[in-house]
Amino acid sequence: MKSSGDGVLIIGGGAAGCAAAAELSRHGIPSTIVEASERLGGLAGSHCCKSTDRCERCDACAPIDVRREVLNSANVTVLTSSRVFAAEEDGAGLLVRISRPEGVAEMRFDSVIVAIGATPFDPALDSRLGHGSVPGVLSSLEVDRAVREGSFHIPDGSSLAVVLCVGSRDVVRGAPYCSKACCKYAYHLTRHLQSANDGLAVTFFYMDWRPLDGDLSALCRWGMAGTRTVRSRPAEIVERDGRPVVRYADPMECLREDAFDMVMLAVGMLPPRDNEELAAILGVPLDDLGFFLPDNGRVLAAGCCTGPKDIDESVKEGIAAAGRAMAIMEGP
């Protein structure tokens, strides 16, 4: 396989980026991961395991597995706390300048895979939902982090409301699209909380049901097992007597107010924060929503930076991007 320089540059060391590097390494192709943070794994790599009395196939272990493979590979160079700040195509490849703590590095690559992930929606941007102002209202990522750190505590027999689509399918305050992964993520996280907290009474507010390939039977079984499911998008969360109160219209269009001990807001995904800057550096366009296109000549993209998706799909996209990068190295 022909190479004009240092193999493949991978910008972003999350699930998709590490999966791409691991796949290239299996074929003996060198790659360099440039990661802005201090460690590999991305947002997905910091998710807690959501097992109950069995593995729930939440995919939280996938980023950890590919990260381990990458760190043990002689074919992968990892540059953390680093950023790409210039790139130029010279006919033989891409000449890239990378800012590192040790200084500036200049390297030539056959192709680039952008895998910088997405940005979680900040629920404080929707003031109606009480995040940061109503006690007991947390984002799904805050709950996940507390579980992982061992600091999540809710008394046995407490009540929990889970609100889906926060920041998604909202043209005014968030994004107009479905974030695809939030249902599955919230479902597995909530089941984990139920298994770890006796008598936790859960009410699940949803618009449509997307996890498990749209398998509605899972939602029905969950409801039959005691979880209350309400097809409604809450209008407001307010405080009353120190507890969050969810205001919503039920399926019969009757206005309701229910108090809970805790509310978890399942947040969606927005385009990556540095999308426009990086696209300009690489000389590639973004789509109408601000995500990277999967294929722009020598510049490829994978994972959530091309649009919202779950961990499994991100890993598969990373592997597919590695295949396209190898095809570029093969030449016409």
What characteristics describe this protein?
FAD/NAD(P)-binding domain; elongated; 332 residues; alpha/beta
Quick rundown:
With 332 residues, this protein is an alpha/beta fold. Helix content is 27%, strand content 27%. The chain folds into 2 domains: 8-118 and 271-330, FAD/NAD(P)-binding domain (3-Layer(bba) Sandwich); 121-269, FAD/NAD(P)-binding domain (3-Layer(bba) Sandwich), CATH 3.50.50.
Protein model, in words:
By secondary structure, the protein is α/β, with parallel strands linked by helices. It folds into 2 domains: 8-118 and 271-330, 3-Layer(bba) Sandwich (FAD/NAD(P)-binding domain), CATH 3.50.50.60; 121-269, FAD/NAD(P)-binding domain (3-Layer(bba) Sandwich). The chain has helices spanning 15-26, 61-71, 140-149, 182-196, 211-214, 216-224, 275-282, 311-330; strands at 8-11, 31-34, 76-79, 83-89, 94-100, 103-109, 111-114, 119-120, 137-139, 159-166, 201-206, 228-231, 236-240, 243-249, 255-259, 262-267, 269-270, 295-296, 299-301. The protein has a 6-stranded mixed β-sheet, with helices on one face. Helix 1 packs across helix 2 and helix 1 crosses helix 8 (311-330). The longest helix is centred in the C-terminal third of the chain and has 20 residues, at 311-330. It is elongated, with a radius of gyration of 22 Å. The mean pLDDT is 92.
Relevant CATH superfamily of the largest domain: FAD/NAD(P)-binding domain
The rounded distance between the terminal residues' Cα atoms is 12 Å
Largest sheet: 6 strands, mixed
Rounded to the nearest angstrom, the radius of gyration is 22 Å
Which overall shape is indicated by the principal axes computed on the Cα atoms? elongated
> Structural class from helices and strands?
alpha/beta
In the sheet with the most strands, the strands line up as 3-2-1-7-19-18
How would you state the average pLDDT, rounded? 92
Order of helices and strands: EHEHEEEEEEEHEHEHHEEEEEEHEEH
Report the count of strand segments. Answer: 19
Strand content: 25-35%
Low-confidence stretches: none
Q: In which range does the helix fraction lie?
A: 25-40%
